[in-house]
Amino acid sequence: RNRYPIELGKSINRYCEPFVGGGAVLFDILTNYEVKEVLINDINSELTNTYFQIKTHLDGLTQQLSDMQKIYWELNTEKRKEYYYDKREHFNYLKVNGDENTNLEKAALFIFLNKTCFNGLFRVNKKGLFNVPIGSYKNPLICDMDNLKRINVLLQKVTIRCGDYKGCLDFCDQNTFVYIDPPYRPLTETASFKSYTETEFNDKEQIELGRFVADLTRKGSRVLVSNSDPKNSDGDDNFFDELYSKYSIDRVLAKRMINCNGKSRGNISELLITNF
Fold first, then answer.
1. How far, CA to CA in Å, does 116 sit from each of 98, 121, 142, 240?
2. Which residues have CB under 8 Å from 21's CB, separation 6+?
3. H or E element: which one contains 210?
4. Cβ-count burial of 2 within 10 angstroms (0-12 exposed, 13-18 middle, 19+ buried)?
5. 22-42 per-position pLDDT tens digit
6. How big is the CA angle at 130 (ends 259 and 109), to the nearest 5 degrees?
7. Residue-wise over 179-198: b if at least 16 C-beta within 10 A, else e?
8. What is the pTM of this model?
């Protein structure tokens, strides 16, 4: 059964993801459907660099990850903390001062930090510096060789861009499926603790995104947008119902995995908005 309600892989043979993030939908589509052209984009340059290094320099990347994993596994708790925070500081140094010659090292550090930090969270401060503390994993799989090899193969047909999502508009046509997974609108004033980049994505940006969806719709692209459901915290908040009133809006239950209170992790309503 086609899990996407369109003829994906048939008449719809191109795929675009303007906010690729962790790429869960991307890799599901690449694994299960035949698509001729794929464009992924993200404003997070460290993320897109990591995808590019997995695609083009897999051997060098896995060698660095394997070396870090061997060292990390042999350290005690206190030494692990020292190692982690040294790597985090070096990553932030390269983020500010590095050039293209350090891109492979930055990608390795990006993956290392993702595998060893608290909850696998990517968060930066206002200066754009990664600031997530160390996690408490016994032997984290820092070099997941099998998974990296699979991703390397799948990415060979993918064009990887870094920049504003609006730059994806030229790629999209009537044969394109576009999945849009932007920074979610916070449900409360204190909920946006996990800044993905140093730039804000507030209601003004959400409204601009709505215009982008309208532009894609005029081009004939099939669009699926996901976002938070404001009605979880305020039943009278019709922000998205009004913004996307011309489209189909479904409320689905999703498991919230990131919360400082473990008991608060659970099912919550999220929005799936489609123009088809």
1. 22, 10, 8, 36
2. 42, 47, 181, 196
3. helix 203-219
4. exposed
5. 999 999 999 999 999 999 999
6. 110
7. bbbbbbbbbeeeebeebbbe
8. 0.91
Among candidate residues 114, 71, 118, 72, the one with its CA nearest the CA of residue 91: 114
CA angle 129, 119, 137 (to 5 degrees): 110
Rounded CA-CA distance 39/16 in Å is: 5
Low-confidence ranges of the chain (pLDDT < 50): 1, 192-193, 263-264
Which tokens go with 169? 């508009």
Q: What is the pLDDT of residues 54-68, one digit of tens each?
A: 999 999 999 999 999
Cα(23)–Cα(18) distance, rounded to whole angstroms? Answer: 11
User: Residues 174-213: pLDDT tens digits?
Assistant: 999 999 999 999 987 655 445 656 667 999 999 999 999 9
Share of the chain residues as helix, strand and coil, in percent rounded to the nearest 5: 45, 20, 35
